[in-house]
Design a protein that fits this description.
Order of helices and strands: HHHHHHHHHH
Oligomer: single chain
Structural class: mainly alpha
Distance between the termini: 44 Å
Number of helices: 10
Strand content: under 5%
Radius of gyration: 19 Å
Largest sheet: none
Number of strands: 0
Helix content: 55-70%
Length: about 160
């Protein structure tokens, strides 16, 4: 990952030693904390009932999760807690992409406007503004918010 980042220049470390060998040792140790965090986040989602822990774990997986985490995230997209459902929808879009569009589209009709707006953002992030325009044209209950926030200038 560090070699890939060197090419992409996607992130960087601060307060690292100027000595190359010491810098790479520090970078390696810092990266070594990422993998346990991924495994811990997945474990929390499988076992914890605490909403705050679930939302925090979903945020981790949104950024670094893999396809193997999608089953538990799909389950959480049906959670009784709106905060968990909304975070799960964002994670599904980030990790699963368009393959998760059916679940994300269903969340557009969620009873919670917060979850529905998370779903709208996920649809937009997937590049499917055609679906958002269809919502507006159909007079969906969230169409005014969709048009104002996510399709500005399309009136």
């Amino acid at each position: 990952f560090e070699l890939l980042n060197w090419r992409l220049a996607d992130w960087y470390y601060i307060n690292v030693p100027a000595d190359r060998a010491a810098r790479w040792i520090g970078i390696s140790l810092a990266f070594a904390t990422v993998l346990p965090a991924i495994f811990l986040a997945a474990r929390v989602l499988e076992t914890a009932d605490d909403v705050d822990l679930q939302v925090a774990a979903l945020r981790v997986l949104e950024r670094v999760g893999t396809a193997e985490h999608l089953a538990v995230v799909r389950r959480l997209a049906r959670s009784p807690e709106a905060a968990v459902r909304g975070s799960a929808i964002r994670t599904l879009a980030s990790v699963g992409g368009e393959a998760e569009l059916e679940i994300i589209r269903a969340a557009l009709d969620d009873e919670s406007h917060w979850v529905a707006l998370r779903a709208v953002r996920a649809v937009r992030d997937l590049g499917r503004t055609d679906l958002l325009r269809a919502l507006v044209e159909a007079g969906h209950r969230w169409s005014a918010a969709v048009q104002e926030v996510f399709l500005p200038g399309s009136a």
